[in-house]
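ok so for the tutorial part 2 we go from a plain amino acid sequence to predicted C-alpha cells. step 1 is just haveing the sequence, like this:
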Amino acid sequence: MVPVIWSVWGICVLFLAAMYLYRSRLTRDEEDQIFLDDSFSHERTQQATIAAKVAKVEPLVKTSLWLAGAATVLVIAYYVWDVFNQFK
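step 2 — the prediction. this is what the C-alpha cells look like for a chain of 88 residues:
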C-alpha cells in the first residue's frame, strides 16, 4: 500500500509542477503596463490573449494544488496512523 500512496503523491506533485511551469511560461511575455494609445492595439490584443490563456489554466493550477495538498495530508496521516499502531 505504501508504494501506491507514494506513487499517487508523486503524480500529484509532478502534475502541480507541470502546471506551475506551464503558467509561468504563459506569463513570461505578459507586460505590467497599460497601453492607452490606439497605436498599441496589437500589444493590447496580445496581452488579452495571454490573460485569457492564463485564466483558462488557473482552475487547473488551483485543482492540482489542492490535490497535491490532499495527497500530502494523506501520506502524513498514514504514517501517523502507522506510528500509533506500532505502540499498541
